[in-house]
Design a protein that fits this description.
By secondary structure, this protein is α/β, with parallel strands linked by helices. It has 6 helices and 14 strands.
Length: 236
């Protein structure tokens, strides 16, 4: 229980630190997941006192709902060509600031919004820092339903196994917000995530994968130090 509370405070510290990076009048992409939601909460608190006049672009229904509840002006990424900043969570981050995202099956839209941004920041607690991506966590793969067999075949030809992600609270597979299927690709620790990313990018019917390589400008890491929740910023 104490560990869970400490982890929650670390996420809040990371979210608060990232919220301080947002300038008045910015257009900001906001991500998905528990630490990204902590960022939204911290940004909303700051906005109430400073009236930042922000426009926000959520990457999922979950984050959009929270942004609307807090009164932010919400934009659709389909009609944008750039953002000032994007802040998002991650499932794993390696020493080169490459990341795996997509535990919540929103990684394709997250990558679109991140690519619109002049600066891309991840917020994580220190449990998400790893020596090698893929160690104990799969790479999520969003797939057009007719391409399921093809994508599985190509992943197996790469030497990896994959499994169709099943839903919780419902029968059948997980569907993304866009109606696609999700495969979890099991790689083990990766020596070259950049090469794997390039291979995946070339598979027809693979809509998007959860490897975010050479994209991240900085990572805000929440951790407990001397009994206090603090946040450190690691830049590329």
């Amino acid at each position: 229980m104490k560990q869970a509370s400490s982890n929650l405070e670390a996420k809040r510290a990371a979210g608060q630190a990232a919220a301080q990076m947002v300038g008045r009048g910015m257009a900001v992409g906001v991500g998905t997941g528990s630490t990204a939601l902590a960022f939204i909460e911290a940004l909303a608190e700051r906005n109430r006192s400073e009236d930042l006049q922000l426009q926000v672009v959520p990457t999922s229904f979950q984050s959009k709902t929270l942004c609307v509840q807090h009164g932010f002006t919400v934009l659709d990424p389909a009609f944008l060509t750039r953002l000032d900043l994007c802040v998002d969570g991650a499932d794993q981050v390696d020493p080169k600031l490459n990341a795996i995202k997509g535990g919540g099956a929103c990684h394709t839209v997250e990558k679109v919004v991140a690519s619109l941004a002049d600066r891309y920041i991840l917020v994580v607690d220190e449990s998400k820092l790893v020596t090698a991506l893929g160690d104990g966590f799969p790479v999520p793969i969003e797939v057009l339903p007719p391409a399921l067999g093809l994508v599985k075949r190509e992943i197996e030809r790469m030497g990896y196994s994959c499994s169709l992600r099943s839903g919780t609270g419902k029968d059948g597979p997980v569907r993304t917000d866009e109606g696609n299927l999700v495969l979890d690709m099991h790689t083990g620790p990766m020596e070259d995530p950049v090469a794997i990313s390039r291979r995946l990018d070339g598979i027809p019917g693979l809509v998007g994968h959860g490897l975010f390589v050479a994209m991240v400008d900085a990572v805000v890491v929440g951790r407990t130090r001397d009994g206090e929740a603090v946040a450190d910023v690691v830049s590329r």
